[in-house]
Design brief:
Blueprint (H helix, E strand, L loop, with lengths): L2 H11 L4 H22 L3 E7 L1 H4 L12 E8 L6 H15 L4 E5 L2 E5 L4 E9 L5 E4 L8 E4 L3 H11 L5 H14 L6 H10 L11 H8 L11 H22 L3 H11 L9
Parallel strand pairs: 2-5
Antiparallel strand pairs: 1-2, 3-4, 4-5, 5-6, 6-7
Length: 269
């Protein structure tokens, strides 16, 4: 098996199957209906966003912490973020008492066995489609977001690169899980899209996309040392695999990449 074949297998294995996707959609629709019943006119609408809508979400066998983001838009935007999170927590505690529920700023997490759903409170904004609670490290209460904006960017990059960008995202997210998550998932996807080529020099196959993207990944100067070490290992071993392939040591290259990104097994993480 070549490096390209191994990476193609990873990308395929880490793609949510149609039956799994339909199961998740059914659970999301149930929650959306329950939200409408519980909140009535206080909630204008709710939408799925993030990796599930982009089709870059990893199945549970590849990422035990895989989740679906559900934005819940409140009509009255006069309150602090914690007010809305408290309201969402009371909602899930009443409707899903046997499920695992916890607050993980800036979301309320609801585990439903086959999937974890993160409820994100939001209000509509003049300067951006929505504002959602900011993470504590952002030193502010609200932060603007466009849930569909990035979806359009990754679709464009994928179309311009032989439909290899979304698979590359799943491949590198699988590495991220195996490496104890040095990147936040969205930041990793954002960098993958930012560095995707356009024009004549597009990605040719999975291995080409992997080899060309990895050297561009960056954690920033403030990242913890263990995170920088994980990224340095990825870059070093990817470079060694690429050199081995150029010297026609294909199996050596494949083994190197397989050590970085193993095929997922049930319960892996």
């Amino acid at each position: 098996m070549s490096v390209n074949a191994h990476l193609a297998a990873i990308a395929s294995q880490c793609c949510l199957r149609d039956d799994e996707r339909e199961t998740v959609k059914t659970s999301v629709r149930h929650i959306q209906n329950a939200l409408q019943t519980y909140f009535g006119s206080d909630v204008s609408h709710s939408i799925v966003f993030g990796s599930f809508s982009r089709k870059t979400i990893l199945p549970r066998m590849a990422d035990p912490l895989s989740d679906v983001d559900l934005l819940v838009c409140f009509k009255d935007g006069r309150h602090a973020p914690q007010t809305y999170m408290d309201q969402l927590r009371r909602f899930v505690e009443k409707r899903y008492q046997r499920s695992e529920i916890r607050q993980s700023n800036p979301t309320i997490q609801l585990s439903m066995g086959h999937i974890r759903i993160e409820l994100v409170p939001a209000v509509e904004s003049f300067f951006s489609p929505y504002v959602i609670p900011a993470k504590a490290k952002d030193y502010q209460e609200w932060i603007g977001t466009d849930p569909n904006g990035f979806d359009e960017e990754i679709i464009s990059a994928n179309q311009n690169n032989r439909s290899l960008v979304k698979p590359l995202s799943r491949i590198l997210k699988r590495w991220n899980v195996s490496a104890n998550r040095p990147f936040e998932s969205f930041d990793l996807e954002r960098q993958i899209v930012e560095h995707a080529p356009s024009g004549f020099f597009t990605y040719q196959n999975h291995a080409d996309a992997f080899y060309r993207c990895v050297p561009n990944l960056d954690l920033g100067w403030s990242a913890a040392q263990w995170k920088r070490n994980a990224l340095a290992r990825l870059k070093r071993m990817a470079a060694e695999a690429r050199s081995a392939e150029r010297l026609r040591y294909g199996e050596t290259a494949r083994q190197q990449v397989a050590r970085l990104i193993p095929l997922a097994t049930a319960g892996a993480g």
